[in-house]
Amino acid sequence: MKQAILFSLAEVRLLPGVLKERQETDCRYLLELLDPERLLAPWYAQAHLPTPPPYGGWEARDIAGHSGGHYLSALAACYAATGDRRALERAEQFVSGIERCQRKHEDGYAGAVDKCCFEKLRCGEIHASGFMLNNVWVPLYTLHKMMAGLRDADQLCGIVSAREIAYKQTHYLMKVWQNLNDDQMQEILKCEHGGIAETLIDLAGTTGEREILEFACRAFCQKSALDPLRAGRDELDGMHGNTLIPKVIGLAELYNATGDKNARQAAEFFFNRVVNCRSFANGGNGESEHFFAVGTEKDHLTAFTTETCNTYNMIKLAEHLFEWEPRAGVMDFVERALLNHIAANIGRKPGEFGYFLSMAPVAVKVFSTPEDSFWCCVGTGMESPMRYGRTLYAHSENTLWINHYFPSELTWQEQGMKVIASGNFPESELVTFEMKFDPGISSRTLTLKLRRPGWVSGMRILLNGAALPVSSGPDGYFTIERSWRNGDRLKVSLPMEFRSETLPGTDRHAFFRGPVLLAGVLPPVKEEETDPARERFSDHLKARGRTDEFPPHLITDRPVRNPNEAEVLPAMKLDWMPLYRVYEEHYGVYFRVMNRRSWLECAEELRRISEQEKARRRATVDEVTPGFQQSEVEHTLRESNSDTGDFQHRKFRRAMQGGEFSYAMESDPVLPLELELLYWGAEWSCTRIALLVDGITVAEQQTHTLCPGEWCTIHYPIPENLTAGKKRVRLTIRHLEGGDGGRVFHLSIIRKPTDRKENL
């Protein structure tokens, strides 16, 4: 079923260059700054063992333990990719800690989350929503991270006990699930559950136990998410990207395990729709973690574009597609995403990882703290640099695929040879591949496949100084069949020309030089100003990710590929540099390109909108976007009998009959405040809700035909005695008798303007 096999991490070493820099920084974080015992704290706590102080951020919440799973995977990959025995020792220590906890539980359970959640499932008690299961934040997601870490410790480090722990944990789950029917299992899967199907399918293959494979297929293949993909339907609008992508990777694993061709077709269909129709210039996708409708891209250039976890998992999916059918197009995507998103969203100091990578008109990168963040993208950020070498080379029995041009060294033990790629790609156009054979081997007859990047023209290839034909096949690879000798050198010239890519349906352009996405860097902020680019965050949603600066526009009367050839208005100097080199600068990726006449016609309107946005941001104390996981989690959602959905490309939450939902929100202890809620003004039925602040009703609202056919924003004054001296309040939306639940699409607490008439 596989035409090519990617080389293992242990067979590829990165050499000095862009990727190696980041790998070394990550190594320092994993091996010098992080304490494995503190990451084990949630396991020890659940097993009632002596527990060291846990880390902060998400590791201080009920998702605690997800970072430990990532950490174990990162250690295993670090050992494989670098040979650093410190990584092996820490991986052994971590596995030993989990093993102690599993022995203490005595029933096979080895998790870091409250076991009561699973014991309730055993009894048929299921309360599932998008990210809560029996009042625990994504417990199966967290469990999957541990299972993946144990798999990697087994496969990459040879820690056999890791497989035994995973085996016992799986049988614990099988006993919990054994009395649940199919409908109950599908109900559980309403809650984000990560790639647990993938790890169970892999474990079934490793152990040879078909019962585990059957369990994975029955319990963890969500029909509502996967059936449309199996039928070739794109129903991705509004779906949570990083919830769905691991499920699709599970389909890929299912094909590998069973030959289910429909599972493969679904995975390929999904990949093509996301990469070719739903991605930004950096290879990332989505906004605020969710897919949005094709054709609405310009409405989603916010601080919260392109979640790093999504792209990390899309690259893992691409690995499967390439092995099934080696195509240059798949590796074009991997190169774009790896260079312009994954490697671009890591800081220069250990422990700095980005959650989103903003494509906003004027943006700053947002990085984590080393000990008080531990977002999901911190976890994948730990793993990513150790996996950089995964897609560089592939092989079949006598064929070698060279997929990328980054400095690296491949050891192909079966052929007794090494391939050394030297140069400074992508900061240099020239790459040299040198063949070296083990003593006693004079030559090998091999087919070499050299990827022709989709961005290149006029590519030149020299073999030992002699030019070779440069015509690639339908797979996008140059094929060279010959008897290779020790010391043969293949020199590849990759001319890096400027080009632009347009955001569909807009006049916004992103610019590249070769494979490198360029950022237009704005002049530095004044020294006396607070610079958001230099802040580090525990709560990533409190980070701005974009600035209030008026975005520069590129003015030209003809199409341009090189952004340096356009005039910049308002007048300023833009320094163009690779996005992966941006650190604490203010930058833009997508720029509006227009002629001078168009600029004169729209400049004042653009300035007016910009000033309105600045004023709104200054007035906003806190805001929630209902239905978005992170926004609701960070605001400590409490709910009973409420649901979420999508309408006209927006998410909402509503309180159903007898239900309510509430959020903990920041307040201003001094200034008068008001609530700002966004409704659809043409609700077809009578809807009545009450708004409460700290349990006191401040307003009632019916939303039937408020503004027919339009969105409607309404403001409600908050009595000053309810917020005086308080830095936080709880805002509740409660269903009232006599109407259906009213849909709320956005809500804010804002400082009360002095010139606005109150809504009564």
What does this structure look like?
With about 750 residues, this protein is α+β, with helices and mostly antiparallel strands. About 35% of the residues lie in helices and about 25% in strands. The strands form 7 sheets. Strands 16, 17, 18, 20, 21, 22, 23 and 24 form an 8-stranded mixed β-sheet that branches. Helix 5 runs parallel beside helix 8. The longest helix has 24 residues, at about 595-620. It is globular and about 85 Å long.
How is the secondary structure organized here?
Elements lengths: L4 E2 L5 E3 L3 H16 L2 H4 L1 H6 L19 H17 L2 H21 L10 H7 L9 E2 L2 E2 L1 H19 L2 H18 L4 H7 L7 H12 L2 H10 L3 H8 L10 H18 L2 H17 L30 H17 L3 H15 L24 E2 L7 H8 L9 E3 L3 E4 L5 E5 L4 E7 L6 E8 L5 E9 L8 E4 L2 E2 L9 E9 L3 E5 L4 E5 L5 E6 L2 E6 L14 E2 L15 E3 L11 E3 L5 E4 L8 E2 L2 E4 L1 H24 E5 L4 H6 L3 E10 L2 E17 L6 E8 L7 E6 L2 E7 L8 E8 L9 E8 L7 E2 L1 E6 L9
Parallel strand pairs: 5-19, 7-11, 20-24
Antiparallel strand pairs: 1-6, 2-8, 3-4, 6-7, 8-9, 9-10, 10-15, 11-14, 12-13, 12-15, 16-17, 17-18, 17-24, 18-22, 18-23, 20-21, 25-34, 26-27, 27-32, 27-33, 28-31, 28-34, 29-30, 29-32
